[in-house]
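Feature request, filed as a ticket because there's no other form

It would be nice if the structure record came with a short human-readable summary line next to the tokens. Right now we just get the raw output. Example of a typical job, pasted below so the devs can see what we mean:
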Amino acid sequence: MGAGGDQIVMGNGFWSMGGYARYVWPCFAFTCLVLAWNLWSANRYYVAARLRARRALAAALAAGEEQ
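Raw output as currently delivered:
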């Protein structure tokens, strides 16, 4: 709400962040980059763990058939 109480502030004042936009927007961008990297890294680890589990299961089954 704006100073009038019933106005929504979405003009240039919002995007300029009261003069601190040069600090705020790069922080937002860096945060989004870190979150995207975190999701990508977690997915990559999950896929690798599933592959390791499948290989271990296949090796255990193959060892069981030999006995």
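Something like this underneath would help us a lot:
The chain has a mean pLDDT of 86.
The chain is about 75% helix and 0% strand.
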